[in-house]
User: What shape does this take?
Amino acid sequence: MLLLMFALWVAFNGRVTVEIVLFGIAVSALVFLFLCRHMDYSIKKERNVYQNIFGGIAYIALLLCEIIKANFCVIKLIVSPKYIIEPKLLQFQTKLEGDTKRVVLANSITLTPGTITVSLEGDKYLIHCLDKELGEGISDCTFVKRLERFESGKEEKKDGKTI
Assistant: This one.
């Protein structure tokens, strides 16, 4: 945040001189100290935000890879004249804490071709799969593992609420 404030200071001034840089450092530091003291801001929280951003980008990359793989599976199911499609409804539970991560998992399952999240109640999911093969191992799929790792390792919790 300190670097962002300093960069904005320099950008808004339109030129770089020694006086502008020194005064910008002082003003940015004072504003940053004010944020830390009176606005419940800390470097720890900022670090967690950056870690979560990188984790989110990695999750989106994983989601895109899984969507591509699932597309090929669905195409194979549709094009193959020998294969008989057997739709299936399956139910499973996760250990994910927090509604946001549960909804992200439900949306990830729905975005992946061949599967749709029919309902989500608490930690119980009801999933419709185009074929029973697409539903195998869904309770411990890569989405669940990544979200559990994301939940356990990089977030700071205070009184049960994510900061």
User: Anything to note?
Assistant: Residues 2-38 form one domain.
